[in-house]
Amino acid sequence: MRKFCLEGKKTEKKTLFQGETSDAKPRLRTVEEIKAEYRKAVDGSGAAAHARDNLVERGEKLERIGQQSEELQSGAESFALMAQELAKRTEKRKWWQFRW
């Protein structure tokens, strides 16, 4: 029984790491790879500009959504007023008095 539990753990570990061991060996990187990594880290102003552009774009989208929701609200209010007006005009009429 004890042996079965250990085999299950080994299989589980193998499945988790997909054949890789936890002793990962470092690999040599090329000069281009290293420069590319440092370029990403050093170029913070580009990242800040990109974030600022995204923020402006998000603000524009929110403004458009706000305008659309105001228009929708206005349309809903006018529809409700027309429905109330129609209900007042037709509340005392019988069904056979309506012209289709």
From TrEMBL:
Domain V-SNARE coiled-coil homology residues, every copy: 33-97
GO cellular component terms, A-Z: cytoplasm
CDD domains attached to this UniProt entry: R-SNARE_STXBP5_6
Swiss-Prot/TrEMBL keywords: Coiled coil
InterPro entries: V_SNARE_CC
Protein name: V-SNARE coiled-coil homology domain-containing protein
Native source species: Nepenthes gracilis (Slender pitcher plant)
Lineage: Eukaryota, Viridiplantae, Streptophyta, Embryophyta, Tracheophyta
